[in-house]
Task: inverse folding
């Protein structure tokens, strides 16, 4: 695993919250709040892949979108440590002020079919971030585009074709080339392989790793597939209904999970080596974010729940080197 | 292999799609047997013909055409039936669909009609096949929904598909498929669109119902982990052909066909620490469907290709044990002795 010798901070998220109003009734009065992201804090170090994992509805995608500044958080701060400009607080920036920073933080999307404009050529698609972030016309950048396409495993001869001519895996390569053409420092990858075929998945995952090494990239890697997370990530955070319940080095979490939710997630992954007979299977579904349970949000599904879990939400606490958990107890849980 | 316990025998099945650009042979000489009460897994990349094979068994392969081969189904009611000869809209196949062979589709979002309640949709099956009245049918629907772990089934029968989650919809689909206690169930990627925890729950429901009702299942998935947990035997498909067929534990412990090996190695494993190691990647993609390579169809991507053999001669199924067959020249005795 890539362990950087000295850790340089790239992005720090502190107490990030995103509440969506639930509207209804007379004049669309606000009836309640959906706490999609609720007090999330983490740090991203340069050259590291940080994973966000959880079931659908846990707020992992919303967290990624907030970092991209696609929307403004309800509260909290996001600090980006730029290598030229120093620390910049992203939350108060307007769209115009954000513009010069966009080329430094880029995104790879989940669905390679809907994330490429069918009426643009590959050259236009990949060149768009360059055009948007700098001056001059597309032709100046032709070499850059050709270079990044080559690095992404596509022939530059394809530059004048349209997205429909490519397979899912090739489209995802185009999406990756588009994200990397401006030489970003941070790439947010939201489920980049979950809509791809198994053999293509491996190609794209390996490509992302190669590009990380050659461009010294930092990834925020969002996925629900724990096998993919284990392969890709150095550190990771497990989210449940908008909050981080466990965070730490990938190997620690997979070998010694500390939160019952993490244990549950690990136990239900079907694997080819053994027949899984999950005794501690996760029961029920993820809690309703607009009608949260009292105390620890996980207690209705937790096999270890005690009285205190019904009344108090446990704070995230340190339990080892860079290992944090939000659970009242020190449980002896089963890893992989 | 004994034939007494066979519920379904497929022999040399070929299904073609005649398109303007040419003919696509989606299923190209597939043979297998499904035994009563057993689970047969089918794995392969997209485009390998696994879904078309499954749909052909129910004769919903159109616009595909069966060009050769046999599908023999041993129906407890009708005796031995040559399914490939049946009229796709005829009385007989319609009495088999859902009553004797039911199917669970991949997309829980689109496989229910949006305009009818679950009660109406599921009871329709029972009214048609079990000749019961509406009130009794609804009672049976409630029971059926309860048996797959659906919470508050009395309420769900009056709900529309958009009102419940994807996982619950897939439960309803299973309840509908099992409502008439079919002999055989085809599950086409039933958990692919679902969350991991929901997937585990659905798999458990399916496994439990399979045991109590002794239903045979043809389980299609590209998730090898899922297949290894639910299936007794597994067959690996590539470009419309079966390249390997073996008992599930043996196949995953020591895969023989280079394609199976490559497929297994290309999937990140939850129980392995990679420490910067790369995944092994299958080179290239699935070839052009209109122009399959000559000889063994896997040879352009195969790391163990034998020049002059694999690119010329199509490999036959070689039995490496009584229950294990591989379509690969590496396991053919004649070619190995020549070397």
Result:
């Amino acid at each position: 695993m890539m362990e950087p010798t000295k850790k340089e901070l790239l992005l720090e998220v502190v107490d990030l919250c995103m509440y969506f109003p639930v509207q209804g009734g007379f004049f669309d009065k606000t009836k309640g709040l959906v706490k999609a992201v609720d007090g999330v804090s983490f740090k991203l170090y340069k050259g590291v892949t940080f994973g966000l994992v959880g079931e659908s509805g846990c707020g992992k995608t919303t967290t990624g979108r907030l970092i991209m500044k696609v929307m403004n958080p309800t509260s909290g701060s996001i600090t980006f440590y730029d290598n030229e400009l120093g620390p910049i607080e992203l939350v108060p920036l307007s769209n115009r002020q954000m513009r010069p920073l966009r080329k430094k933080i880029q995104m790879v999307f989940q669905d390679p079919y809907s994330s490429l404009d069918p009426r643009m050529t590959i050259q236009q698609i990949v060149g768009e971030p360059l055009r948007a972030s700098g001056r001059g016309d597309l032709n100046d950048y032709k070499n850059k585009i050709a270079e990044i396409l080559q690095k992404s495993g596509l022939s530059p001869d394809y530059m004048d074709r349209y997205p429909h001519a490519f397979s899912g895996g090739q489209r995802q390569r185009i999406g990756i080339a588009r994200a990397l053409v401006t030489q970003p420092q941070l790439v947010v990858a939201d489920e980049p392989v979950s809509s791809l075929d198994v053999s293509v998945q491996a190609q794209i995952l390996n490509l992302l790793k190669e590009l990380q090494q050659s461009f010294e990239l930092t990834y925020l890697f969002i996925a629900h597939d724990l096998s993919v997370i284990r392969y890709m990530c150095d550190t990771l955070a497990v989210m449940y209904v908008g909050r981080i319940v466990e965070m730490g080095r990938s190997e620690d979490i997979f070998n010694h999970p500390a939160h019952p939710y993490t244990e549950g997630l690990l136990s239900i992954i079907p694997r080819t080596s053994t027949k899984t007979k999950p005794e501690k299977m996760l029961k029920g579904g993820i809690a309703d974010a607009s009608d949260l349970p009292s105390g620890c949000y996980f207690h209705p599904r937790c096999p270890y729940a005690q009285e205190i879990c019904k009344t108090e939400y446990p704070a995230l606490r340190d339990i080892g080197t860079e290992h944090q958990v939000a659970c009242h107890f020190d449980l002896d849980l089963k890893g992989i | 292999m004994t034939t007494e316990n066979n519920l379904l025998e497929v022999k040399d099945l070929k299904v073609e799609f005649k398109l303007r650009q040419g003919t696509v042979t989606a299923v190209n000489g597939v043979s297998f047997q499904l035994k009563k009460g057993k689970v047969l897994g089918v794995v392969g990349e997209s485009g390998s013909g696994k879904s078309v094979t499954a749909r052909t068994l129910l004769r919903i392969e159109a616009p595909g055409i069966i060009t050769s081969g046999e599908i023999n189904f041993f129906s407890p009611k009708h005796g031995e039936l040559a399914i490939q000869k049946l009229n796709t809209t005829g009385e007989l196949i319609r009495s088999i669909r859902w009553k004797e062979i039911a199917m669970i589709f991949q997309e829980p979002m689109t496989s229910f009609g949006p305009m009818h309640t679950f009660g109406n949709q599921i009871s329709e099956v029972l009214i048609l096949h079990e000749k019961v009245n509406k009130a009794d049918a609804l009672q049976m629907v409630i029971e059926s929904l309860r048996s797959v772990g659906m919470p508050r089934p009395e309420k769900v029968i009056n709900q529309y598909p958009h009102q419940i989650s994807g996982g619950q919809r897939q439960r309803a689909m299973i309840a509908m498929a099992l409502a008439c206690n079919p002999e055989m169930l085809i599950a086409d990627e039933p958990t692919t669109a679902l969350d991991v925890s929901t997937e585990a729950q659905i798999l458990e429901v399916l496994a439990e119902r399979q045991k109590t009702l002794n239903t045979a299942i043809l389980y299609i998935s590209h998730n090898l982990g899922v297949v290894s947990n639910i299936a007794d035997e597994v067959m690996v498909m590539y470009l419309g052909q079966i390249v390997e067929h073996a008992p599930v534990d043996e196949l995953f412990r020591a895969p023989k066909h280079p394609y199976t090996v490559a497929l297994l190695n290309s999937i990140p494993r939850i129980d392995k620490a990679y420490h910067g190691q790369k995944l092994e990647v299958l080179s290239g993609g699935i070839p052009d469907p209109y122009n399959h390579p000559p000889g063994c169809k896997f040879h352009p991507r195969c790391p163990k290709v034998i020049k002059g053999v694999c690119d010329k001669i199509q490999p036959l199924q070689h039995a490496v044990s009584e229950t294990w067959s591989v379509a690969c020249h590496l396991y053919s005795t004649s070619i190995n002795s020549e070397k």
The longest strand of chain A covers residues 29-45. Residues 198-215 of chain A form the longest helix (18 residues).
